[in-house]
Write a sequence for this structure.
């Protein structure tokens, strides 16, 4: 079993995204380094647009994550409402 | 010479300001909205009473009959602070600008049948003056209201209304000559069908209680006006008769109304939930001003949609009543 991870710039715009990921993925672990937030999770991790909108209070286009996305790993499954990273080992 | 570069992580000693931490429950990372709002209201040590109102302090919660233990409970669900509000509106402005270019490049304005164009102008241009009135009223709510959580979004709302007025002006100049704006003003001042609405707006200028004014302008009047004019008239009537360009050029208005209705409803709902006295007062204001607003818009609805106008207005009132019921202030 491997970790998938996703990393964002640590700023105000990514804060609701990170909060949403932590809320939706109980096994996710946050690692802070200067200017960066990396989120590791075993096997799979899902980002849900609806959860981000609960944080921001306003409509959110899931593509907005790319403004602050640094890197990620895992197979990507993506649509308008969610982005899932996973490994199938 | 050897230069050794290292990244060092410097952790702040605290996550946020003490006056913000007090409201969010401890030393946690705070959002920009929280930092811009919580604890920002001047509350004490005012040096003098206003010469224009010596019965109150400069910032005084007692200017309103609504009583709240803590005015910061009136949070904006949109979490707008200056930067996020500006950027959101800038994006919307870009979209409208794009619509104007689309209409312009394909000559869509000229393609609107003359009678449809005249009807659109007759209904929409006098509303510039109503939008200006809304700007005045929201600026008044910001000036005399208490509590940054309540007054800051009111100022954004005031500027938004100014934007609506400017979009209507620009619509007039796109569909017709500048004389059309004068004609709209003359209609606002002299045409009997506009006088009831005009009296509503002008009477609202002297409402003293900022919360009552909030209900009268943002909930009662706009809650009927926007669905009626931009939903039933522009989208369901003008657009279907060859006036799609009008819907494109006024695209901001219905979108903004829906977004800001979330704020208006949240404010009213929170204030009503605090006490029976607040709830009773809000119910009374809502009923009184919604009745008056419906009467004020009746001749406008007839001007826009003929006989079907009063039916459309009744439907808009039912929708407003449902909104108010969800917020706990149905009359």
């Amino acid at each position: 079993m491997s970790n998938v991870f996703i990393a964002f710039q640590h700023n105000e715009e990514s804060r609701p995204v990170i909060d949403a990921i932590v809320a939706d993925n109980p096994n996710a672990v946050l690692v802070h380094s200067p200017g960066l937030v990396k989120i590791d999770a075993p096997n799979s991790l899902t980002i849900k647009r609806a959860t981000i909108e609960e944080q921001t209070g306003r409509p959110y286009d899931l593509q907005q994550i790319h403004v602050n996305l640094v890197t990620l790993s895992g197979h990507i499954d993506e649509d308008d409402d969610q982005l899932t990273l996973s490994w199938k080992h | 010479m050897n230069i050794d570069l290292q990244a060092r992580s410097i952790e702040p000693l605290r996550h946020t300001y003490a006056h913000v931490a007090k409201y969010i429950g401890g030393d946690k990372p705070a959002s920009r909205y929280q930092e811009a709002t919580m604890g920002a209201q001047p509350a004490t040590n005012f040096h003098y009473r206003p010469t224009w109102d010596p019965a109150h302090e400069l910032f005084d919660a007692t200017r309103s009959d609504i009583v709240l233990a803590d005015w910061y409970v009136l949070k904006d669900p949109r979490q707008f602070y200056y930067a996020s509000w500006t950027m959101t509106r800038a994006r919307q402005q870009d979209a409208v600008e794009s619509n104007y270019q689309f209409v312009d490049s394909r000559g869509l304005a000229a393609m609107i049948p003359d009678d449809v164009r005249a009807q659109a102008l007759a209904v929409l241009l006098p509303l510039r003056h109503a939008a200006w009135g809304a700007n005045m009223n929201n600026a008044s709510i910001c000036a005399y209201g208490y509590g940054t959580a309540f007054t800051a979004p009111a100022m954004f709302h005031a500027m938004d209304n100014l934007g609506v007025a400017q979009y209507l002006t620009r619509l007039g100049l796109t569909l017709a000559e500048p004389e059309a704006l004068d004609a709209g003003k003359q209609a606002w001042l002299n045409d009997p069908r506009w006088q009831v609405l005009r009296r509503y707006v002008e009477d609202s200028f002297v409402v003293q209680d900022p919360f009552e004014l909030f209900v009268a302008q943002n909930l009662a009047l706009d809650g009927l006006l926007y669905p009626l004019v931009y939903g039933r008239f522009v989208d369901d009537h003008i657009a279907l008769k060859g006036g799609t360009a009008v819907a494109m050029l006024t695209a901001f208005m219905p979108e903004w109304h829906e977004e800001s209705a979330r704020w208006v409803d949240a404010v009213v709902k929170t204030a009503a939930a605090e006490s029976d006295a607040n709830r009773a007062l809000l119910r009374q204001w809502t009923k009184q001003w919604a009745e008056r607003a419906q009467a004020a818009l009746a001749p406008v609805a007839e001007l826009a949609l003929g006989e079907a106008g009063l039916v459309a207005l009744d439907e808009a009132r039912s929708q407003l009543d449902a909104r108010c019921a969800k917020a706990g202030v149905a009359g």
Notes: Chain B touches chain A through twelve residues (CB under 8 Å). The first helix of chain B runs from residue 18 to 24. The two ends of chain B are 80 Å apart (CA to CA). Chain B is about 70% helix and 0% strand.
